[in-house]
Design a protein that fits this description.
This protein is an alpha/beta fold and 394 residues long. It folds into two domains: 196 residues, Rossmann fold (3-Layer(aba) Sandwich); 180 residues, Glycogen Phosphorylase B (Rossmann fold). 45% of the residues lie in helices and 16% in strands. It has 15 helices and 13 strands. Strands 3-2-1-4-5-6-7 form a seven-stranded parallel sheet, sandwiched between helices. It has a six-stranded parallel sheet with strand order 10-9-8-11-12-13, with helices on both faces. Strand 6, helix 6 and strand 7 form a beta-alpha-beta unit. Helix 8 packs across helix 13. It is globular and about 65 Å long. Keywords: Glycosyltransferase, Transferase. GO terms for molecular function: hexosyltransferase activity. This is Glycosyltransferase.
C-alpha cells in the first residue's frame, strides 16, 4: 500500500534571472505539487532574482557567472542539512543540471528517498554549445559528467522526459531500466489556451491582414531557427503576406537576425527578444502556424519533450516540427500538426505553406491538439505522476 507523502524538498540549480523552459518546468512542478503536499523549492538566490514567488528558499550565492554554481553548491550544503534536520522531507527531488553532488550525498547519509529528473545529457550539450572550448566550460563539464554518474547511480528513482533519453541513461551509466520512469513535459492549460486571434493581434500591434508563423523559445543552436529563416523565401514565394514572429532571446539572436538580413528578409521577421511568460500565449494565439525546427544533433539521440510543442497545442495552434523522437510521437498521437525531416528548409516550407493555405485543416488540428494536451499533458497530471513515484519509495 502506498504511504502518504507529506513533505517534499525540490532542489534546483538553474537561475531565475533568466526566462527558460527549465524555469517554467520547475515552477509549474512547485505550483502543482503544492496542491497535494507540502513542498519547499531550494534555488540560487542572486541579488536581482524575483523573490515574490512563494514556497522558494533562496540560497545566498556569489553573483558571478563562474562562481554562482560552486558557491550555490557550498551554501546549499548548510541550508539543506539544517532544513533536513529541522523538517525532514519524505522525498528529495533534484533536477539534474549544473553539477550537483551534495543533495544525493545527504540523502544517502540520512536515508532520505531521492528522485533525480533528467532532461538531457551533458556530452550532447557540449557538441552544440558555442562556449564548449573555454577552460571554465571544460572544468564545469567535467564536474557535470561526474555529477551525472554519481547521482544516477545513487538516487532511488530517475525521471526521464523521453524514452530515448532513458535508453541513453541505461547505455551510458548501466542503470537498470526499471529504475527509470518516463514522464513527458506538460503545459499550463489555464494560461496556454485558445484566444481570439484578432484581439491578440491588436494587443500586440500586429497587422490583422497578414498570416503569421511563430517560433517561441530560447535562441540556441539546437532549436534550428536558422532553418526556418532559410525556408522563408520558399514560404513567401507561395504566401507573400506571411510575417515571422521569433519570440525569445539567446546567444543565437544576433546571428539569426544577420542571416535574415543577408537573405533580404529583415522586414519579414520580428525578433521580440525576451517577453514575460504570461504574454507568450498572446504571440502563439496571434499565429496561424507554429514551428519547432529542431536540429538532429543533440536531439535525435535522446528525443525531445519540448515545452513549446505542448504550449502550441494547448493554444489550439497547428504545429510543424522536426520529426525527432518524442516530438514526432506527440504530433502523431495528438493529430495536431505535421512532422518534417530535420534541417530541411524545403520540407519545412512545404508543410508550413500547406497549412497556411488550408484554414479548415489548421482549425481541425488545433482542436485535436488542444484536446490531447488537456487530457494527457497538463502540469497537474505531471505532478500526480511524480507524486505516485514518491509514494512508491517512501
Amino acid at each position: 500500500m502506498f504511504k502518504k507523502v507529506n513533505n517534499i524538498f525540490l532542489v534546483y540549480y538553474g537561475s531565475f534571472n533568466t526566462k527558460s523552459g527549465s524555469n517554467i518546468h520547475i515552477l509549474e512542478l512547485l505550483r502543482n505539487l503544492k496542491k497535494h503536499t507540502d513542498i519547499v523549492l531550494f534555488a540560487p538566490g542572486q541579488k536581482s532574482v524575483d523573490r515574490s514567488l512563494s514556497g522558494i528558499k533562496y540560497v545566498p550565492v556569489i553573483d558571478n557567472k563562474y562562481l554562482v554554481q560552486p558557491s550555490y553548491e557550498f551554501m546549499l550544503s548548510f541550508y539543506l542539512l539544517y532544513s533536513c534536520i529541522k523538517n525532514r522531507p519524505d522525498v528529495l527531488y533534484l533536477r539534474q543540471n549544473s553539477f550537483p553532488f551534495f543533495p544525493i550525498i545527504l540523502c544517502k547519509i540520512l536515508k532520505i528517498p531521492s528522485i533525480v529528473e533528467v532532461n538531457g545529457i551533458v556530452l550532447d550539450e557540449l557538441k552544440v554549445d558555442p562556449n564548449s572550448q573555454s577552460f571554465a566550460y571544460r572544468v564545469f563539464s567535467y564536474l557535470a559528467l561526474r555529477s551525472e554518474n554519481f547521482n544516477y547511480r545513487h538516487c532511488d528513482r530517475i525521471v526521464s522526459v523521453t524514452d530515448k533519453l532513458r535508453d541513453e541513461l541505461v547505455r551510458l551509466y548501466s542503470i537498470p531500466e526499471s529504475k527509470i520512469h518516463i514522464i513527458n513535459n506538460g503545459a499550463n492549460t489555464d494560461v496556454f489556451k485558445p484566444l481570439d486571434p484578432e484581439q491578440v493581434r491588436v494587443k500586440l500591434q500586429l497587422e490583422s491582414s497578414k498570416k503569421y508563423v511563430c517560433f517561441v523559445g530560447h535562441l540556441a543552436a539546437w532549436q534550428g531557427v536558422e532553418f526556418l529563416i532559410h525556408a522563408s523565401p520558399l514560404i513567401l514565394e507561395k504566401c507573400p503576406d506571411v510575417h515571422f514572429l521569433i519570440v525569445g532571446d539567446g546567444v543565437m539572436k544576433d546571428k539569426l537576425m544577420e542571416t535574415a538580413s543577408n537573405l533580404g528578409f529583415s522586414d519579414k521577421f520580428t525578433f521580440t527578444g525576451r517577453v514575460p511568460y504570461e504574454q507568450v500565449p498572446f504571440y502563439i494565439n496571434a499565429a496561424d502556424v507554429c514551428v519547432a525546427p529542431f536540429i538532429k544533433e543533440r536531439n535525435s539521440k535522446i528525443g525531445l519533450s519540448a515545452l513549446k510543442t505542448y504550449e502550441y497545442l494547448a493554444c489550439g495552434k497547428p504545429i510543424v516540427a522536426s520529426g525527432i523522437s518524442g516530438v514526432k510521437d506527440l504530433i502523431e498521437a495528438s493529430g495536431g500538426g505535421l512532422s518534417v525531416t530535420p534541417e530541411s528548409p524545403e520540407e519545412l516550407a512545404t508543410a508550413v505553406v500547406k497549412l497556411l493555405l488550408d484554414e479548415s485543416t489548421r482549425t481541425l488540428m488545433g482542436e485535436r491538439g488542444r484536446k490531447y494536451v488537456v487530457e494527457n499533458h497538463s502540469w497537474d497530471g505531471v505532478a500526480r505522476k511524480i507524486l505516485d513515484i514518491c509514494k512508491d519509495i517512501v
